[in-house]
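Our platform keeps sequence and structure together, in a single record for each protein. Nothing more is needed to write down the fold, since each code stands for a local backbone conformation. An entry from our holdings is shown next, in its original layout:
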Amino acid sequence: MNVQPSYTLASPPQTSRLLRGWAQLSRGTFASATFLIDVATIIATSFLTGVAYFLVVYGDLGDLSYVKVGALAACIFSFLNMFSGEYRLPNFYAFRPHARRTIQLWNVTLICLLMLGFLARISLDYSRGWIVLFYFTTLTALIVLRFVIVRVTALARAAGLISAQRICLIGTGAHIGAFIQHYEPWALGLNIVGCRFLTPVAAMASAETRRAVLDRDLAEAVASVRTLEPDAIYLLLPWSATEIINRCAETFLALPVELHLGPEQILHKFDEVELAKVGPLASLQLTRLPLSRAEILQKRCFDLLFAALALLAMTPLLIAVALLIKFDSPGPIFFVQRRYGFNQQPFRIIKFRTMRALDDGAFVRQTTRDDPRLTRVGRWLRRWNIDEVPQLFNVLTGDMSLVGPRPHALSHDHDYERRISLYARRHNVKPGITGWAQINGYRGEIDTDEKIRKRVEHDLFYIDNWSLWLDLKIIARTVLSPTAYENAY
């Protein structure tokens, strides 16, 4: 068994005691420094916004009591970050997810401040105008600060000044190679200081031979680990090799390092694997709910409020369109068709009738450009997406959401599910009137596998990256972006 230079990313000078001590110190001081920077930033913004507000509105500095609010907010926000683990170095490797969590924690901080002010009966002592100014100014400062820290962290990692952890990889060649290729540990701040391959043994070898080879490999690995002094050992072995894993665990428990059982190769397919514990029961959670209960509540409240207001505002339009349809061609005003909703439960979608045909059977012919079945009014309604407006009623009844994967006719759903992998995941959330795929131009006739594949990719991106802000962005682009009207026929 040999140390493989091709997988050893730390040169010998980098493994010196001085730099190992610096790496540990940098990780410890990083969290403390970020904590103190947050505290200083919030107190500073409370002072600056307070001075500016009172000078402009009242012409004096006030009693500076707003600094006390800033200090309290700093304590709440910083301790929330600390207890949720936000100051850990790996959290600063990507800006967007960390910024999203920062916004959430700052909102919680504001709620806590308002509750404390109410309970202490001092909320009336502070200007509401200053509180709003303080909230938005501090939020902006924190987001900018997070962006700067993420960029500085990236530069420091590239220069080798900080690393999340120094690790040693031990296992089979195939598993180590797949681990490095898939995860690129250096991009996560993991500094690979050594890599040891277990010697392959013929399947026909006796148990004594296999044990002797393993014992020799582990003895060499222990000596190597004692020299390299990594923070952690990653065992990269098939999980079915329980005997080898147990023997490795027994051996490396004698070393002052963390011991990790690396991921099985099947886990490469999942991005959000977590260790879940219910009492003494531990399990690997491969996927989470598409939306948490809190997110479902947020989305439903937003849907109800927006749909109700939109229907009230569009009542004259609904009446006018209904009259145009009635006078333009014989038939009903609305077209009702069965579609699959959340968890593949069928419901009846409501649209303004735009065609002379009312297909809803085992075969539904797709609408094509210049389709002869379109009515004169229907062609115009489709061009400007007005035929979709009655689906606001589907939103109010809970069958649909404002934003989500667009539902297809049942016959099309059955066909696409056979042709496209993971197509059924679209039903893990409620279907929407508009969606991420639609505003990116993926709508209209589906006559190739590539078109439906791209639509599914965009729908799954929306499910995996949902936020209320994303919904607002999609709604705005549905109305304002020319791309949202492409292929509308």
